[in-house]
Amino acid sequence: MNSEYGFNTSLLHMPKIDNPFGSTTTPVFQSSAFKHDDSETLEKIFNNKSMGFSYTRISNPTVDAFEKKVNHLEKGFASVACASGMAAIFNAIVNIVQSGDEIVAAASLYGGTVELFDDLKGLGITTRYVTNNIPSEYEKLISNKTKLVFAETIGNPKLDITDIEEVAKVAHKYNIPLIVDNTVATAYLVRPITLGADIVVNSTSKYINGHSNSISGVLTWGGNFEWDYEKYPGLKPYKKFGKMSYVVKLRNGLFRNTGACLSPQNAFYNNLGLETLGLRMQRICDNALELARFLEEEMKLKVSYPGLVSSPYNETAQKVLKNGYGGIVTVRLGSKENAYKVINSLKIPFILSNIGDTKTLVIHPESTIATHLSQEEKVQSGVYDDLIRISVGIEDIEDLKDDFRSVIKQILMIYGE
Ligand SMILES: *Cc1c(COP(=O)(O)O)cnc(C)c1O
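Above: inputs. Below: predicted complex with pyridoxal-5'-phosphate.
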């Protein structure tokens, strides 16, 4: 089969997966363990000498199909599916860092990741934050203790854009891998590995699943980074696996031992969701751009969206992203009271903490997802008390515009007066 198919054809047909009985989707292998004909076979599987399934905490055929699809999508070398996006991030990082090591990360990270980095302090791993997401700022914070650089393609809710290619160059200059969280952008907008990222993580609870029915995550190893096994001593015992050392260590260690596995049922939902990722993202990006322009130009609001010329990140967005600018739009409404009034009066959007659904979602980040962050962390994440975040869905755009128009006219005529 051709590996150069377009985005949507690839999602439906690549890679080729042999499903039993000619079934067109990979069935849910709802089995905790897998039997074998003899002890020799099981011995080989347990000693990485033969492929095969033994126990679902380690691997499972439905989950394996999902990993292969995501791996193809992200142009990776191998992928590991996890129980959540946070589990994927934890595993991707702790697989290579030890007490005394440092991480250099963008300051505009997802709140959960910032909190995870706070937790890592307890294990002796410190994070230094780049407040201004530009490549030279990363370089300033790299020390001889730095073991990885972490960034998000599109920061949420700050909506800043990482220049992946340039940040990767900085990291590689010091022989450090770059990990990119691609959740908000998805492979529809950019494949970070093709720009030099070494490991990509996705919370597949969002756009990849696409329908808000499963918490899940995945990490994808790019296969290009050359490990210095003296600098990363934890990987040394796995050196013999060559390009696979990072993933073999994970599967034989932390991933297996933290029980971070994805359930087969959730992998099944994700496999279904993946089929329409391209269609949904196209529609979501079109809707988000139109809604952002409408709110800025017609409603005269203070809107942030990487696709708007007014965004300070528009230039980097044009360089890094293809096909669109994503589905997240934020608006500042002058006060927390206004923000609450607007959120509470909208008829279509659901008020909840999630992104990447088919339905439009809205939230006040400062009092919810960012509530555990310090004041300084909030500012760095682009969180303000008058800001609302909209995760644009696939509804008819005229209906969304009508909903926002009537609410803003009613409530916010004060604004701009
Ligand atoms: C949601 C999210 C996560 C965490 O994913 P879960 O699946 O909720 O654990 C990580 N990073 C980003 C950018 C996210 O949006």
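The longest helix spans residues 277-298.
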